Amino acid sequence: MTHRPVIFCDFDGTVTEKDNIVAIMEEFAPDGWQAIVTEILNETISIREGVGNLFSKISSSQKEEIIQFVLTRSKIREGFQEFIHYTKTENIPLYVVSGGIDFFVYPVLEKKLRTDQIICNSSDFSGTHIRITWPHLCDKKCHKDCGCCKPSVIRRLESQFPEHKKIVIGDSITDLQASKLADMVFARDYLIEKCEENRIPYTPFETFFDVIQALKKEEVKS
Ligand code: MG
Ligand code: ZN
């Protein structure tokens, strides 16, 4: 590559095979959560509002149970460990930027990444029900009320990596705005459709072995 890369990788549906928030709601939330998910997808409410609302239905006392549930149920996409190894040996900065919540994202990535490589929402269990807190709100350039605002995170971090080629890896609508800022996009699932709709060039992937291979090829090209 002419420029060294910096990688911003999504978590739910990208690092893990399935979306953890939906799985948690299916298991722990009282009925009615489906309507909130629909509202988020229809964009009638913002992601921040919707996700905050979803978790507020769940009792704080279920924290440990939810962590165990995610740890046993969530499957890590093939090649992720090797991908981390590759970024380390190549000295490529890697960030997982997630709309997920710290209390289940951190345990899944424990011993894999340093905590400063993980950027996600936070949580407060001091009340009767789970309260999500938002350390990475939208900056002045984003008005979507993302909750964890991926484009804002990229804008904040890119100053630390001037001249780097920004690589975004993701699977869904929540990665679209970040993809618009990227120099190279790895997409799967719904993000593929969104990239095509928005004429954003992308490399499709199924496992992280695909990503490693494509990155190696890029390196040869330059
Ligand atoms: Mg995702
Ligand atoms: Zn935003």
Folded structure, characterized:
The chain has a single domain (5-221), classed as Rossmann fold (3-Layer(aba) Sandwich). It has ten helices and seven strands. The chain is globular and about 55 Å long. The N and C termini lie close together (5 Å). By secondary structure, it is of the alpha/beta class. The protein has a seven-stranded mixed sheet with strand order 4-3-2-1-5-6-7, with helices on both faces. Bound molecules: magnesium ion and zinc ion. Residues 138, 142, 144, 146, 149, 151-152 line the site of zinc ion. Residues 10, 12-14, 170-172, 174 line the site of magnesium ion (MG).
Layout of secondary structure:
Layout: E1 5-9, H1 20-28, H2 33-41, H3 47-55, H4 63-73, H5 80-89, E2 94-101, H6 102-109, E3 118-124, E4 131-133, H7 150-158, E5 165-170, H8 176-181, E6 184-187, H9 190-197, E7 203-204, H10 208-221
Parallel strand pairs: 1-2, 1-5, 2-3, 5-6, 6-7
Antiparallel strand pairs: 3-4
Helix pairs in contact: 2-3, 4-6, 5-10
